[in-house]
Design goal:
This protein is of the alpha/beta class. Helices cover about 40% and strands about 15% of the residues. Strand 3 and strand 4 form a beta hairpin. Helix 2 packs across helix 5, helix 6 packs across helix 8 and helix 6 packs across helix 9. The chain starts with a helix and ends with a helix.
């Protein structure tokens, strides 16, 4: 029997086990994942920053894909008093992952798996350095989410979620993908998660900056005005991926990008939402990571460079 199922039978114990899932960060995607996990019957807690102490909502207002809205009661904790953690699912923006985890250095018991679900790349390696005695797992997801108010979340698109090992210790935790699948409908384990991370990076490099700069929904990228830009972005990303030793073609990347554009046509990208709300974007972990790799290999990526500069200026 999976360990997660055993927890549900021990809720009346005098010394109850920690929640099956502790989520660090409760933005749009974190709120949706917390809601889906809770609905699947897995005990779930969210860890929040101290500023939320004075603004707590009585529950999470969650709207599912079919439009059904309900108020969910999900346990909340605060990073200064994290309590016992069985497994940690980090749902913050890429730039916030390391700062959010830093207060837990030396306080998170050795062996507790850390699952990272953020856009972009280059963050997991920093987490491994700071948490050398922990299994670190990288994840990619294509679920869509929106936050429209204080703890008000909407699930806007069902996608795939993949987990995979960043370090050797993580390889013993493939079962976490099965438990996530109970909530998400699909989740898998891939020992070669870096390939999927790069594929997701290519999609983000193509969709996020363009939608944010031109203030359009994802679906509008299928118009002819964006054809050349999308093609060139994919050519540049493919060049860098090939230098990394990953077998890929720009045609394959473009097909993946256009498939996501179609599937998420009515969605606003996370970078669009961040720009509109005046929040820091994930451009550094997305296009910034690509530019750093391109520089390492001496590869010219002018279109991505231009988009990066434009986002930085507007941000």
């Amino acid at each position: 029997m999976p360990s997660g199922l055993r927890d549900n039978n021990l809720k009346t114990s005098r010394h109850p086990l920690p929640p099956q899932w502790t989520l660090l960060g409760c933005g749009a995607l974190g709120g949706v994942f917390a809601s889906l996990l809770a609905q699947s019957g897995q005990s779930t807690r969210v860890l929040l920053r101290e500023r939320h102490r004075a603004t707590l909502h009585p529950g999470i207002d969650f709207t599912s894909l079919d439009g059904h809205t309900q108020l969910l009661t999900i346990e909340r904790g605060f990073i200064s008093q994290p309590g016992a953690i069985k497994r940690l699912l980090v749902m913050t923006k890429a730039s916030q992952v390391v700062p959010a985890l830093t207060p837990l250095i030396g306080r998170l018991p050795a062996g507790v798996p850390i699952v990272l679900l953020h856009n972009g790349m280059g963050i997991a390696e920093q987490v491994v350095q700071r948490f050398p005695h922990h299994p670190v797992i990288a994840g990619v997801t294509s679920h869509g989410a929106m936050q429209s108010g204080h703890f008000v979340f909407r699930h806007t698109g069902k996608g795939e979620t993949w987990l995979g090992p960043v370090n050797e210790a993580a390889k013993a935790h493939a079962y976490l993908a099965d438990e996530l699948a109970r909530a998400l409908g699909q989740a898998g384990w891939d020992e070669q998660i870096r390939v999927r991370q790069w594929q997701k990076l290519a999609i983000n490099c193509a969709i996020n900056p363009l939608t944010a700069l031109y203030k359009v929904k994802n679906g509008e990228l299928s118009g002819t005005r964006f054809t050349d830009a999308l093609q060139q972005i994919c050519v540049e990303v493919a060049d860098v991926m090939q230098a990394e030793g990953l077998p890929v073609s720009n045609e394959d990347l473009l097909r993946r990008v256009m498939m996501v554009v179609e599937l998420t046509a009515d969605n606003y990208s996370s970078m669009y939402q961040d720009m509109e709300l005046g929040r820091e974007t994930e451009i550094e972990a997305i296009t910034g990571f690509l530019l750093a790799k391109a520089t390492q290999y001496g590869i010219a990526v002018p279109v991505n460079q231009g988009l990066y500069q434009a986002i930085k200026e507007k941000q």
